[in-house]
């Protein structure tokens, strides 16, 4: 009987020691699960095409000096205003960086062939006509968007530039001036839009831009007996368009080369 009691007592002591020792050991917790996948990532490069409609207005300020059998007379800052409309089609390329908070920072460069023009008839009975046109249009823009998975709305803005041309006959202060001038002008543009990734490498976009360029300038003789200088008073265009982009994660794939590591 004493032997059994001794065995049971020893076993109880061992168990109590094991429990106490286990209580003193540090607790073990399983590692946290990995964070959920962020879905589509807008980080990468893109190259695409776009086309749309442009409409707005353009104007010129003229300084006219009349001379001849009558005393010299001057008119300053006489305004000529024209409405414009037409189309643009071109290419764009750029890059985007999606931050952990889903904000997407981007840069886009574009260049377009344009036929946004004005054709106004009026004045004398034989019909004077002044024609103004935006021939080429480009922009270097920053973009800031927010990623809702494959859908990204954004705002954009930056430098705009274009080739402007004016020709025809302009009627100012009762004088007719043959007009022909062409120049490249710089300005600015702002707008907003959205882009949607149909597939991992193909996205479509729709956007609106407001663009403001200065307008061209020139000088020349008029009929009868007058001389004029004129300067652009703005070539402003509202642009609505759609486009499609091919997207890749590295620049080498975009230009058909091996991975450049960027």
UniProtKB/TrEMBL annotation:
Upper classification of the organism: Bacteria, Pseudomonadati, Pseudomonadota, Alphaproteobacteria, Hyphomicrobiales
UniProt KW keywords: Cell outer membrane, Membrane, Signal
Protein name in the entry: Porin
Major site of localization recorded for this protein: membrane
UniProt cross-references to SUPFAM superfamilies, sorted A to Z: OMPA-like (SSF56925)
Signal peptide boundaries: 1-22
Domain Outer membrane protein beta-barrel, residue spans: 62-247
InterPro entries: Beta-barrel_OMP, OMP-like, OMP/PagP_B-barrel
Compartments (UniProt record): Cell outer membrane
Taxonomic source organism: Methylocystis iwaonis
Gene3D superfamilies the record matches: 2.40.160.20
Superkingdom to which the source organism belongs: Bacteria
The keyword Transferase belongs to this UniProt entry's keyword annotation: no
Homology family: Belongs to the Omp25/RopB family.
């Amino acid at each position: 009987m004493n032997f059994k009691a001794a065995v049971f007592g020893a076993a109880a002591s061992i168990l109590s020691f094991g429990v106490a020792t286990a209580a003193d050991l540090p607790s073990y917790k399983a590692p946290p699960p990995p964070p959920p996948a962020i879905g589509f990532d807008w980080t990468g490069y893109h190259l695409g095409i776009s086309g749309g409609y442009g409409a707005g207005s353009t104007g010129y300020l003229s300084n006219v000096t009349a001379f001849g059998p009558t005393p010299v007379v001057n008119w300053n800052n006489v305004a000529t205003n024209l409405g414009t409309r037409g189309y643009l089609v071109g290419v764009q390329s750029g890059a985007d960086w999606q931050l952990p908070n889903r904000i997407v920072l981007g840069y886009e460069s574009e260049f377009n062939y344009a036929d946004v023009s004005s054709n106004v008839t009026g004045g004398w009975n034989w019909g004077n006509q002044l024609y103004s046109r935006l021939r080429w249009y480009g922009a270097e823009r920053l973009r800031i968007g927010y990623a809702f998975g494959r859908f990204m709305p954004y705002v954009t803005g930056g430098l705009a530039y274009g080739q402007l041309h004016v020709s025809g006959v302009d009627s100012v202060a009762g004088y007719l001036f043959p007009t022909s001038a062409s120049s490249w002008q710089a300005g600015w543009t702002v707008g907003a839009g959205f882009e949607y990734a149909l597939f991992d490498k193909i996205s479509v976009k729709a956007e609106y831009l407001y663009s403001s360029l200065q307008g061209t300038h020139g000088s020349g003789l008029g009929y009868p007996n007058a001389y004029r200088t004129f300067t652009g008073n703005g070539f402003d265009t509202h642009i609505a368009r759609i486009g499609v982009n091919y997207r890749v994660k590295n620049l080498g794939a975009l230009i058909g080369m091996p991975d450049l590591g960027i």
